[in-house]
Design goal:
The complex is a heterodimer of chains A (278) and B (311). Chain A is of the alpha/beta class and 278 residues long. Chain A has 5 helices and 13 strands. The two termini of chain B are 29 Å apart. The chains are: A alpha/beta (278), B alpha+beta (311).
Chain lengths: 278, 311
């Protein structure tokens, strides 16, 4: 993990939980515990490419791994053709540029890489992401960012239904609209939608925060509006500016949604215990 | 799981047979059991295309005398058509058990359908001025080759690759479904309808008939019945979302329209591409890429979304 000077560089973070406690979830002292033993040492200035034309997902992912093994830190995918399950299970830092669109389950199970996609993505993009950044320039399908635990997952267009279902951490940013059941069973992390949200937003959520810039069709069980604080505005401004998604009218109009009720057994856990159970 | 796909050309005709084959072949992994097409060609005046089968593919393996039986059944169909005053102007045997007739008939369509299906093993796949419904076991390349669909020219079509979950692997349970007894209406569906029996009994009490126990057939009958009552396709699709329970995305075609409806949970996938020239929809974007290889903007329709496009 050469070049890492703080836990933020590792994509990890300090998170306030309901104003009751502020807990450092990861620290540099524990860094060794979060690095994968066989993580390859890659050179980000060394660029390789994979032409996906006429190839199956297994073959494409195999070529990606071979490039990483040979030290390529930046990999370009050409002609991805909306194929499924591409760039999955990458557990270390690397840069990916996808010239085109991905299908279902793209960029799943990531822990560290930075991915930029010029097209759109299908269902379940970025599911179970632990750390890293994925930016999609166009639209995304349903269950965008299902069960992510960390990192930033960005879609500059609109996303389908059930965005961030079972979200356990990290940040989901959407430039357009999101469909029904977004934030369903959300447990931690933040979701920002600059456009409108479909019905049952935040249904059964028991922690985490959702920010909606447009209209909300209706809220799900347990989801309630909360005051948008100066801290919220500062964070939204920073994040949206970072990804060049800042709305023209700023962030003051965003509606903040939090969990109105908590599960008794979950709410009584210490933050460190929550980390263990999630 | 199943895969569905549809396309409509807004400015004239195209090789929809080949296009649908490419789309459905790209969806083979969603359902390899059977493949079906409902494609719309250029109608000839006063002519209907009748597609029917007189046996299931698997029947051929059941008896050495099945070929003779199939000939007998086909002869009975021919006799019935003659008795009803139907003129057959062209005849094709796509397979040993499935046939395509071009007919001239100005009588009661339901009577025609009922009389043919009264013959043992006979089932009408479609009757239409422009609709041709083809379905059989195997993937799109197999079905397309067997029925010679690569050269089919038309304006629009829908198709289906089936993974059998609710009923048998046979042609009877394959999609699309023709909306008996109404010409030129077909449906493909991905999902499960949970109030199937309740809805089916209601429609049966109204005089509708079902040829299979596949829940998708309900949609075809439901849509056709509503259209017959004078509702528009768009209103019919909206009403279906209120009245039909379950998780589903389905496509409907009429002689000049393509429609889609998505349930209130948005639980089944659909990707949509729309341009001035054409509209293409499919369970997965790979199917659209099979006919439009360059980068395009696509999106997922939302829950309870209904769309209708005109040819």
């Amino acid at each position: 993990m050469a070049g890492v000077s703080s836990s933020h560089d590792m994509g990890l973070h300090v998170e306030p939980l309901k104003g009751r406690d502020i807990k450092t979830m990861f620290s540099l002292e524990n860094e060794g515990g979060y690095a994968y033993v066989f993580a390859p040492d890659v050179d980000f200035n060394k660029r390789g490419s994979v032409d996906c034309e006429g190839k199956e997902a297994t073959e494409i992912n195999g070529e990606i791994r071979e490039l990483i093994k040979s030290g390529h830190g930046s990999i370009v995918l050409e002609n991805p053709g909306a194929k499924h399950s591409i760039i999955v299970g990458i557990l270390h830092r690397a840069n990916f540029i996808v010239n085109g669109s991905l299908g279902y389950f793209g960029c799943g199970l990531l822990d560290g890489p930075m991915v930029r996609i010029s097209g759109r993505v299908g269902w379940s993009f970025g599911e179970n992401m632990m750390a890293g950044v994925c930016v999609v320039e166009k639209n995304a399908g349903s269950t965008f960012g299902a069960a992510i635990r960390g990192g930033d997952l960005v879609c500059k267009g609109s996303v389908g239904s059930r965005t961030g279902i079972d979200q356990k951490g990290g940040t989901i940013l959407v430039g357009g609209d999101t469909g029904a059941f977004s934030g369903f069973m959300m447990q931690r992390g933040r979701m920002v939608v600059c456009g409108n949200a479909g019905k049952n937003l935040g249904d059964s959520m028991y922690d985490g925060t959702i920010y909606i810039g447009g209209e909300i069709k209706d809220l799900g069980v347990d989801a309630v509006p909360a005051d948008l604080t100066d801290l919220d505005k500062a964070w939204l401004t920073r994040k949206l500016t970072q990804y060049e998604m800042m709305p023209e009218k700023g962030v003051d109009h965003f509606t903040k949604i939090v969990a109105g009720k908590q599960l008794w057994s979950y709410d009584n856990l210490e933050p460190s215990e929550k980390k263990l159970v999630l | 799981m199943c895969g569905i796909a549809g396309l409509i050309h807004r400015k004239g005709t195209s090789n929809v047979g080949q296009e649908m084959t490419n789309m459905l072949q790209a969806l083979k992994h969603r359902g390899p059991d059977s493949t079906g097409y409902a494609i719309y060609g250029e109608p000839e005046k006063n002519t209907y295309v009748l597609r029917f089968k007189v046996a299931e593919q698997e029947d051929l393996d059941k008896s050495l005398k099945m070929s003779d039986e199939i000939k007998r059944r086909k002869d009975r169909v021919d006799e019935t058509l003659k008795d009803l005053g139907v003129t057959v102007s062209e005849l094709e045997d796509a397979t040993e058990y499935a046939f395509r007739y071009e007919i001239q008939y100005d009588g009661d369509m339901q009577k025609l359908a009922d009389h043919i299906e009264d013959i043992q093993g006979a089932e009408i796949l479609s009757i239409g001025a422009s609709l041709e419904l083809i379905k059989d076991l195997g993937d799109a390349s197999v079905v397309s080759k067997a029925y010679g669909l690569d050269d089919f020219t038309g304006t629009h079509g829908i198709g289906h690759t089936r993974m059998a979950t609710e009923s048998d692997v046979d042609i009877r349970s394959a999609h699309p479904y023709w909306a008996y007894p109404y010409s030129d209406i077909a449906v493909v569906h991905n999902g499960q309808i949970t109030n199937y029996w309740l809805m089916r009994r209601q429609l049966e009490r109204e005089g509708q008939r079902f040829v299979s126990n596949c829940d998708s057939e309900l949609l075809a009958v439901y849509v056709a019945t509503s259209l017959e009552k004078g509702m528009t396709l768009e209103d019919t699709l909206k009403k279906s979302i209120e009245e039909i329970d379950g998780v589903f995305t389905y496509l409907v075609t009429t002689k000049d329209q393509l429609g889609m409806a998505k349930d209130s949970m948005a639980a089944k996938p659909m990707v949509l591409y729309e341009s001035d020239d054409m509209v293409a929809l499919a369970s997965e974007e790979v199917a659209i890429r099979a006919i439009i290889p360059h980068e395009i903007d696509t999106w997922d329709p939302y829950d309870e979304e209904v769309r209708v496009w005109q040819a």
